[in-house]
Design goal:
The chain is an alpha+beta fold and 177 residues long. The chain contains 4 helices and 10 strands.
């Protein structure tokens, strides 16, 4: 026996939850993501509350709070609208979010157990790449503990911080000084 049918109302019309999608809107109004509402048919979950979809998009409470403060929002829309809504953002700054401040020779990194991004020095090919702009660890070299720009964190295993990870305010102040 399948899951019970649940309907939601969108713009005055009733839709089965399998026929609607959560749409993530960036602060500029462009669509920057989508997620299923009803994934029960393939072992997923039924996501009817904004708090549930926020938890699906953002791992930590700090990331969810940052996204909400920046103006990201979610709406349930009919699935057939998704293709017409999706596209690249033409705005400047892209998605309505100013890029993180940075310094030459530094990148935003996070410790494995960290919840806040810090500016940490990067090293060029002559010493091996310590931290690269991307989603993966770079090759490991014995560079010892590397200190964040603010001086509050030293670690050997920094990884690139995603844009949703909140920034250290002290590193940010030093980057814009």
């Amino acid at each position: 026996m399948g899951a019970p049918t649940i309907t939601v109302e969108v713009d005055g019309q009733s839709y089965d939850t399998t026929d609607v999608t959560w749409i993530s809107y960036a602060p500029c109004g462009c669509v920057e993501g989508a997620s299923t509402v009803d994934g029960r048919s393939y072992g997923g979950e039924l996501i009817l509350a904004e708090a549930q979809v926020l938890a699906k998009f953002y791992d930590t409470k700090a990331e969810r709070d940052k996204a909400k403060a920046q103006g990201f929002r979610f709406e349930i829309r009919p699935r057939d609208e998704v293709k017409t809504l999706m596209g690249d953002c033409p705005h400047t700054p892209k998605w309505g979010i100013e890029p993180r401040p940075t310094l030459e020779g530094h990148a935003w990194g996070i410790k494995d157990s960290g919840r806040v991004a810090h500016l940490v020095p990067t090293y060029g090919k002559e010493r091996g790449s310590f931290l690269l702009h991307g989603d993966k660890f770079s090759e490991r070299y014995d560079l010892g503990h590397v200190e964040s720009l603010c001086g509050s964190v030293r670690d050997m295993n920094w990884r690139v911080a995603g844009s949703s990870v909140p920034e250290c305010t002290r590193c940010t102040k030093r980057a814009v000084a």
